Amino acid sequence: MATTAQLFEEPFDADEYIERLAWRTPGGGSKGGAEAFDPKRLLEEFENHIEELKQLDEKIQRRVEKLEHQCHREAKEFAHKVQDLQRSNQVAFQHFQELDEHISYVATKVCHLGDQLEGVNTPRQRAVEAQRLMTYFNEFLDGDLRSDVFNNPDKIKEAADIIQKLHLIAQELPFDRFADVKAKIASKYHDLERQLIQEFTAAQRRGEIGRMREVAAVLLHFKGYAHCVDVYIKQCQEGAYLRNDVFEDTAVLCQRVNKQVGEVFSSPETVMAKLIQNIFENKLQAHVKEKLDETRHSDVEQYLKNLYDLYTRTTALATKLTEFNLGSDKHTFLSKLIKSIFSSYLESYIDMEREYLRSRGAMILQRYYDSKNHQKRLIGTGSIQELKERIRQRTNLSLGPVIDTHGETFLSPELVVNLLQETRHAFERCHRLSDPSDLPKNAFSIFLLLVDHLCVEHIDYALEIGLSAIPSSDAKNANLYFLDVVQQANSIFHLFDKQFNDQLMPLISSSPKLAECLHKKKEVIEQMEVKLDTGIDRTINCMVGQMKHILTTEQKKTDFRPEDENNVMIQYTTACSKVCVYVSRQVEHVRKSMDGKNVDTVLTELGVRFHRLIHEHLQQYSYSSMGGMLAICDVAEYRRCAKDFRVPLVLQLFDTLHALCNLLVVAPDNLKQVCSGEQLTNLDRNLLHAFVQLRVDYRSARLGRHFS
């Protein structure tokens, strides 16, 4: 059986088990081992082993049954024990309930007894206290304060408690019978109050926080408690303002005192609020008054700067002070303090701001014109000026004498920067110092002053002078400076527009004044655009007039009908060369003076008029065969010049003109074919015929029949 037990080692595998059993049997191995395989012996061994297994199973089964029986017996015993414990627990719980009821009963009795004792003791204590106060009262009545409490300085706290109660009692006594004693009690009351305040002051100077707290607690019930707080506030400020910066000193003082008042006073927020109110109504108000009153009538610019700086620093200080406990509505409290200081100055702020900007702007303008030795001309207003403007726009005529500005545009970047800088400061002050309800209105009034000084008095005036300086279209060797005026006016207006968006828009964006500002800005732009367009149009006319003058003086009839057809050595005529040089110079001038789409617009107009001039000019001459070739060369040079415009329409016009000039040299038999070409097929037949008529051989070659 021991051997069999060894065969049941874990983990159990039936195949392995049989194999090991066969291996242990002599002659039972699969290879026979040292002995030959003996199946009978192996069978016999298996049968014996089966019997052993049966016996082992019976033995184990008996043991299992024994253990089960033992388990059932122990389970019953355990159940009996649990039942006994439950019964014991129930008995203990009942005893606990009885004990709890008994304790509650005793506690009720004790509380009742305590109430009875208190009901007896409280009247007794009151009687004792009344007797004690009567004893002290008798001393005042006799006029002899014998008690140690009134004569010992160390018992001042106890004496203060007694005299405070006696003072309250004395208030209820009739005056006619107790006038003398009431006066004595009041005298002692004030004397003790004075001593306590002196003691508090001395403790504050020594830095004894504990003693200050004790005395403040005693004084809390006295009428002089407010005086104690005043003395504390006054003493806190001694030596606190040694620097020139009253705002920084105030912030440091409040930071230091805030820690102390919480340790000394029972209501620190009240004391802190009173300290800040005292500082605002005395130190800050005196500082603001001194700074502003000394410049209010003598130097308005410095006054406005000081007002802005002082108000900004005061509001910044108030923001710092909000971190302290000043009561439930500290923001309203601080706002009222600020208003009490600045209200008289803020009421008249915007009037002074406008007056300053008006005079400052006029001074800046006058200083500039004086530096140019220029006496400003009066620009007419009203119906007569409007009539002149309309006539000038419709006829392009100069309705006044031409002014020689000697190249001066009368536009100054430095002046513009100064005006915009002053206005920017004004907008900043307006934002800070204006009441929120008045802010859009005040900002709009500042904007109107900027429009008047910058746009009307400076830009518009310069445009008027520039228009007056534009020569007539038939002037010779005219200097055209209006494009320089255009360039500078555009640059200035970009700066004006930037300030409008950056400084003004945030102040009026959510108010009805926004529409008024935008309308005013649009009106100003439109007025300037009208004058700019008029000036540019007249300038282009002058350019074309100068080209016409060059062509008239330089172009000769013999250029296109040379005497010697076989000896023409030039590539293009002198007139063409000079016109192209002049045009290239003006195109470059336009590019420097304009920006964006304006460049293409102006160059398109100039190019179209340039083409029209050349087209009309070419129709004034008759052309021989070689002259026609020279005309084609001239037009080719004009076309090359037109490429500088970088405008497709202008280049297309000169391409067409070049194609028309081919009609001057083409063989008569090829005229129809050329006229049907891509560039000429859409042109009016009369125009084609007019160009063919310019040929010298028009009649002799009977070229008219090709258009009949």
Automatic annotation (TrEMBL):
<dbReference type="GO" id="GO:0006887">
    <property type="term" value="P:exocytosis"/>
</dbReference>
<dbReference type="InterPro" id="IPR009976">
    <property type="entry name" value="Sec10-like"/>
</dbReference>
<feature type="coiled-coil region">
    <location>
        <begin position="43"/>
        <end position="70"/>
    </location>
</feature>
<dbReference type="GO" id="GO:0000145">
    <property type="term" value="C:exocyst"/>
</dbReference>
<feature type="domain" description="Exocyst complex component Sec10 N-terminal">
    <location>
        <begin position="39"/>
        <end position="148"/>
    </location>
</feature>
<dbReference type="Pfam" id="PF20667">
    <property type="entry name" value="Sec10_N"/>
</dbReference>
<keyword id="KW-0268">Exocytosis</keyword>
<dbReference type="InterPro" id="IPR048627">
    <property type="entry name" value="Sec10_HB"/>
</dbReference>
<dbReference type="InterPro" id="IPR048625">
    <property type="entry name" value="Sec10_N"/>
</dbReference>
<keyword id="KW-0813">Transport</keyword>
<dbReference type="Pfam" id="PF07393">
    <property type="entry name" value="Sec10_HB"/>
</dbReference>
<comment type="similarity">
    <text>Belongs to the SEC10 family.</text>
</comment>
<keyword id="KW-0175">Coiled coil</keyword>
<protein>
    <recommendedName>
        <fullName>Exocyst complex component 5</fullName>
    </recommendedName>
</protein>
<dbReference type="GO" id="GO:0006893">
    <property type="term" value="P:Golgi to plasma membrane transport"/>
</dbReference>
<feature type="domain" description="Exocyst complex component Sec10-like alpha-helical bundle">
    <location>
        <begin position="158"/>
        <end position="706"/>
    </location>
</feature>
